[in-house]
Amino acid sequence: MVKNICCIGAGYVGGPTMTVIAAKCPHIKVNVVDINTKRIEAWNHSDVSKIPIYEPGLSDLVQQARGRNLFFSTEVDQAIKEADMIFISVNTPTKTYGVGKGMAADLKYIELCARQIADVAEDDKIIVEKSTLPVRTAEALKNILDNTSKDVKFQILSNPEFLAEGTAVQDLLNPDRVLIGGEQTEEGRMAQKALVDVYANWVPSDRILTTNVWSSELSKLTANAFLAQRVSSINALSELCEKTEADVNEVARAIGTDSRIGSKFLKASVGFGGSCFQKDILNLVYISRSYGLQEVADYWEQVIIMNDHQKRRFASNIVKTLYNTVSGKKIAMLGWAFKKDTNDTRESASIYVADDLLNEQAEIVVYDPKVTAEQIYADLDYLNTRSSEENRKGVTVVNDPMECFDQAHAIAIMTEWDEFKDYDWKSIYNKMLKPAFLFDGRMILDHDKMEDIGFKMYTIGKG
Ligand SMILES: NC(=O)c1ccc[n+]([C@@H]2O[C@H](COP(=O)([O-])OP(=O)(O)OC[C@H]3O[C@@H](n4cnc5c(N)ncnc54)[C@H](O)[C@@H]3O)[C@@H](O)[C@H]2O)c1
Ligand SMILES: O=c1ccn([C@@H]2O[C@H](COP(=O)(O)OP(=O)(O)O[C@H]3O[C@H](CO)[C@@H](O)[C@H](O)[C@H]3O)[C@@H](O)[C@H]2O)c(=O)[nH]1
């Protein structure tokens, strides 16, 4: 039975996942380790509301388990030595250099972990791939781990994570399924069972699926590709709706009631963001091309092409509607996170829309309930479109949303935060220059009601 778990990587996946394991398995000691000292300090902050990741319900669980059987530290070697089971939950971003630049997953952090484990481990371990990885990564990991001089045996499992940010705790407590891929040998099956037993502490057994390693690795990329494909499909139709006076919400409802199609992931938007969809599809495209499967690669690449188009057309529509110029015009952007209930901004559509508007010399004011000004500037600086000073000059970040609207020419809703629905839109309208334009990139406001107030209203997917 597993008694001691180590998780390398205290990020959006490692942190919440291990917190739930620790909360549900008080008999297992869980050490979450990271090389990022600041992040670990934040996880250990005496004020639990200051932990580095905002997820509804997470701080309560951390409070419950931290110091009991959940520990956060930078002592990576020590945690590896102690553990029977090691989760690798480090980042696997898109490569920014060399072969596969802009497409393939960068596996350098994964490889470093494997080398460190090989170096430090003194007894047999089960290694669990928690990070999202290209199919057949376990083979490379095994090569590295098996080539140590020590007499230590490793079993590698693939256990991809399907949590979505904003609902991470609920997704972890009540997952649709847990997927565990293992080697089809006696030892492989024993390792698989050890991990099944961990999850069985709270997940019903019919939701714990076991497969071979390669199916498990590929299922993760596939699940994200299918989900993102639905968003790109409905976004493609949102543009057609705008031309034909069909309403994309009504179309989504009409098709979603077909049980073969289903109603989820059919919400048209300003484009999907997040650290996973784009990265994982690019990786799938890269893998397909590397096997010579051009048609397969082209098929999935279209999901990304459509998403880029959706972000760009939202920005260009703002410019076009504001009489073809936003130069010197104040535009209030509500929301910067890539979806509601998270402080994560990775690949958020807001970044790209703001960048396009800054190119047109707009004056942007941003409000997001959970994202810091520092993060917003870092996101813009990362694009390298203009100097850091210019980004700070073009973008003001406010802590009080009501500071956004005075003399604004337009408002753009970028994230579907619930609080935006409850604003006093009549008084916001009164503060703005007229005509007052409102671009709802998330379909959260009542279009007709806003028009009654006086707004010139654009709702995505509405003719
Ligand atoms: N974010 C999500 O919602 C989500 C969901 C499912 C799967 N995933 C996958 O999970 C993986 C992790 O994603 P994330 O969002 O948690 O990333 P993240 O960047 O938030 O966290 C990764 C952490 O790993 C640490 N790290 C990197 N190399 C290290 C090393 N050698 N030793 C110790 N620590 C190291 C980093 O400092 C960082 O804190 C990725 O492969 C991602 O695709 C993410
Ligand atoms: O109908 C929809 C659903 C989602 N989105 C957008 O799509 C993006 C991704 O949303 P979501 O999938 O809910 O969040 P993620 O945290 O990115 O989660 C995805 O990526 C994770 C990382 O791999 C997986 O674990 C999850 O299962 C998968 O849903 C966000 O910008 C959403 O606003 C839409 O525009 N319309």
Automatic annotation (TrEMBL):
Catalytic reaction equation(s): UDP-alpha-D-glucose + 2 NAD(+) + H2O = UDP-alpha-D-glucuronate + 2 NADH + 3 H(+)
The protein's role, per its UniProt record: Catalyzes the conversion of UDP-glucose into UDP-glucuronate, one of the precursors of teichuronic acid.
Gene3D superfamilies, per the entry: Cytochrome c1, transmembrane anchor, C-terminal, NAD(P)-binding Rossmann-like Domain
Similarity comment: family membership: Belongs to the UDP-glucose/GDP-mannose dehydrogenase family.
InterPro entries to which the protein is assigned, alphabetical: 6-PGluconate_DH-like_C_sf, NAD(P)-bd_dom_sf, UDP-Glc/GDP-Man, UDP-Glc/GDP-Man_DH_C, UDP-Glc/GDP-Man_DH_C_sf, UDP-Glc/GDP-Man_DH_dimer, UDP-Glc/GDP-Man_DH_N, UDPglc_DH_euk
Protein residues bound to NAD(+): 9-14, 34, 39, 90-94, 131-132, 165, 276-279, 346
Entry binding sites for substrate: 161-165, 220-224, 260, 267-273, 338-339, 442
The UniProt record lists the keyword Hydrolase: no
Domain UDP-glucose/GDP-mannose dehydrogenase C-terminal: 332-447
Swiss-Prot/TrEMBL keywords: NAD, Oxidoreductase
Domain of life, source organism: Bacteria
SUPFAM superfamilies: 6-phosphogluconate dehydrogenase C-terminal domain-like (SSF48179), NAD(P)-binding Rossmann-fold domains (SSF51735), UDP-glucose/GDP-mannose dehydrogenase C-terminal domain (SSF52413)
EC assignment: 1.1.1.22
Protein name in the entry: UDP-glucose 6-dehydrogenase
Any GO BP: UDP-glucuronate biosynthetic process
